[in-house]
Amino acid sequence: MWRKLFLKIMEAIVVHDFYFVQKRDVIGLLGLSSIHKCTIAIRMLAYDAIAHYVNKDCRLNESIALECLKRFVKAIQACFESNYLKQPTLVDVKKQMKINKKRRFPSMFASIDYMHSSWTICPLTWQGQFQDKNKTIGIILETIVNQSL
Description:
The chain is mainly alpha-helical.
């Protein structure tokens, strides 16, 4: 991830959730920095890592790692959903259809892209719902993508 993008995300999250601000504990020692907390959450998401492994790498308690992840995901949704996860308007659809017509795809709005991802920390009660024919536990992540992403 580019440093500039990471810092933009981190700054938005710090403004949204006070949990990500670096604070002093009861005896005056500095706690985890905002960078550290965001890095932990991104690492868990990017590498499909469970809190136990992040504990070894970052020397951090599992419960804190999980709390960082939960709050990070909620903050991302709250801060960026309106700009990046919105439904297309009629103007957006017409503009994209015109672009696709020029590209010789006259009735296509966008492409559906997907990827299979194994889910190593799937809760035991959900495992039956997320098994494929090979008994592998995973999920399919889908997105609709157009030329402007």
